[in-house]
Amino acid sequence: VIKAFPELFKSKLPEKLPEEAEKLLSMLDSSVSRLNSRVDQMAQITSVQTGGYAFDTESVELNKSIQDKIQEHLEGALSNENTLSFGSDETYERYGIIDTRAFGEILDELIENAIESTKKGTLTISIEPNDSIDSIHQEDNSHTHNYWVISVSDTGKGISPEIKELLFTPFIQQGGTLYRDESKGGLGLGLYFVSLLVEKMGGKIWFTSELGMGTTFYFTVPSSETT
Known about the structure:
transferase, Sig_transdc_His_kin-like_C, 227 residues, phosphorelay sensor kinase activity, HATPase_dom, phosphoprotein
């Protein structure tokens, strides 16, 4: 109903409107889009927390899933004059046990954050065996070599040290403030949602970052045998 309101409103107006009225209508459209985005995201979080989000895991070749996402976000990366590429050997097949919808939503959020925080930089998505990543949580030995580690790296502005411990909590944004910029249409729920999805698929998520140098997010998914 909310989404349809601007179109319904415009249908009652004359075809030709003054420039100022057109601007106001555009602002209305943007405001409604942001509101819908927030409602949808909060509904998704509630769904995951209450068991309503149906996870359907299967063995999937991960290279293609990642490269498909890279293609989807190339235009967005270019809009900030960034390069976006796959940083691992494309010829080596890697199979993981994932829910394809959840895996896609995780990558969407991490790639979009990387694009937003980087200008005229480099964005790289890689996948490696768990035991080849030096920055795996050393305090947690529950992960074995039967996991893949996917990383999303950027050469952007980095993350403020004061919020590093809070980044996966609700209403914290990667840029370092309590709430996201209103113009971005978010409430700082994206990384919290991502952390829920990763955990539900049996993985872990963490990051490394240096102010002014960039950030790398890592998350793990269970591996599966090649069939």
